[in-house]
Fold:
Amino acid sequence: MNEPTDNPYVREPDTQFRAADELTEAKAKEQVSQLREAIEYHDYRYYVENDPIVSDSAYDRLFDRLDALERLFGLRDEHSPTQRIGSETLDELETHEHVTEMLSLDSSEEETEVYDFSERVRDEVGGVTYSLEPKFDGFSVELVYADGTFNRAVTRGDGENGEDVSTNVKTIRTVPLQIPDAPEFLAVRAEVYMPHSGFQDLNQERVQEGKDPFANPRNAAAGTVRQLDPRIVADRPLDIYFYDVMDSSQAIETQAGVFELLSDLGFRINEYNRMADDIETFVSYREELLDERDELEYEIDGVVAKVNAFEKRDALGETARHPRWAFAYKFPPNTGETTVKRIAVQVGRTGRLTPVALLDPVDVSGVTISRATLHNEAQAQDLGVAEGATVEIERAGDVIPQVVSVTEAPDGTFEMPEQCPVCGSDVTKEGPNHFCTGGMSCDAQLTQSLEHFASREAMNIEGLGEEIADILVEAGVIESIADLYQLEKDELTTLEPFAEQSAENLLREIEASKNPDLASFLYALGIRHVGTERARLLAEYFSLDELETADATELKTVGDIGPEVATSIRSFFANDSNREMIHQLQQMGVTPERRERGDEFDGMALVFTGSIEDYSRTELTELMESHGASVTSSVSGETDYLVVGDDPGSTKLEQADESGVETIAAGDFKERFLSEIGALS
Ligand code: IVH
Structure:
């Protein structure tokens, strides 16, 4: 998408605004239209290109100004960026006819069938170039634009008619509402999906609210797109990849032309799309994406080869169900069947009990699965999972595998124990969930709280991970978090695996953690719903003393904090033992301090590939972003460095090579960047 010219709000978003009521109506209209264009462009830079050109606060100012002008001058318009989230709950979804019938793809998991396909193509139209694409396992929609304005989004339905899901699809920020320089008429096809991280969070939330979790990201995306209340949709993370132009007043002759047009118009297309002159490349493309599958944020269930030239497509034609010019080479299913050996009950950091099905190990598309979450008692009972059951499980990326259904149920049902399996305290039920009432006297809760407290984004006490937390709690040398600061060398050296040196190292680390950044300290406390980002915001607005007494109204002025999060913060500080813990920590010399966010890496764009020892991808991303860098998932001309860890993806390496992006080995990255911000482990 080209950058709009002559629009003051694109490159100079901080342009001073005149008081709104001093504007003439004509001037207001002009400003509204410039603001809409600028905001759409900033959305595109942020959401599609992962390369914003304005700060969040500058963006917010533009948005608020637009909102104010539209309200003041009665200029609301359903295609304004302020109107992405609809307010009316629908009674039902209306049916709408497709611009062209939505066929399906011929597909197989067998390599021989792929060669049969290419031979048919060669026999009928000679040698061809193929467009190679991921086959997204999401929810397909057709979008129509008239004169560059979003008109509707329709689900696949029976192929000829689908349901009008415009209001919901409009909430997806990568869906353009107005397209500058668009052809008069445009119908495009796309796949809506829910990213894995969002899927996991959504399921956790649903279970906490007593609702059934979704079995997989596809169902979650489908359920969300077909929601009748658009405000629910707006809270759920959906994204979209565009892959076809069904009809356009602009002539297109190839699939490459389709992608060029889509991308010129600002539609988000997938980074793995590629052209190939032979079918062998398609076979190796499948291998490559199969390897990358678990690293992707979206589900793919195979890859697709499409004849590039439309002229040749026309010659090949189609059967009643699918085109003869395309073929999907499917991946093995990510489901498997096995038996439940036992149901274990785990106790989390907050005391919540989670039943976990321990399975006869089963290979699911190359990964051995031996446990699956059952979320809570009701979920286990609804599914009919009990010891001895034969179950179907499904895994998505590195999300914890889910039990999808029970194929053979034994007698009996699963029931949550009445006493905590770890500490024996009574178990209470809150809504659909069970909690251990032991608090920090429960070793499971204490161990996990300690591990969280010491983690890198929290107090950053190196060497205090799960194993050591376990040892310290089990040996009884730690009975509360504050005990950490009273540990003595003699105590440690009596414990396996400590020796003189390692005990000294840990004590030094503990001592060095005494002056944390307030944001890290707040995160370390483990307040429900307060992750690193909210902790950072809270620390910006409040001192620790202020936060302890802040009421819900004050809390809600901060970032995205709503009633639920405010209540959680309030009840954390209202709880005597939490206040006692903070008090004890302070007495031990722990003094949190409010510090500015780092800007060492401002403007730097990074991409990671492969794994980097000692750090998770999320950890690295948060670390680098908290010091000003932007971390994206794909390499582009804007990328400054591609950081290469173990088992890197070949696609990212190739892209870096093509775009001349500097690659940097994991070791050098640690030395150059992590050491600069004191985050070397
Ligand atoms: S092209 C006539 N390309 O697969 C062929 N479809 O089985 C039109 N899908 O309903 C489809 N990724 O939801 C095409 N790269 C891709 C795709 C894709 C996923 C889905 C789509 C369609 C189904 C067909």
About this structure: DSSP finds 25 helices and 22 strands in the chain. The two ends are 42 Å apart (CA to CA). Residues 218 and 672 are 41 Å apart (CA to CA).
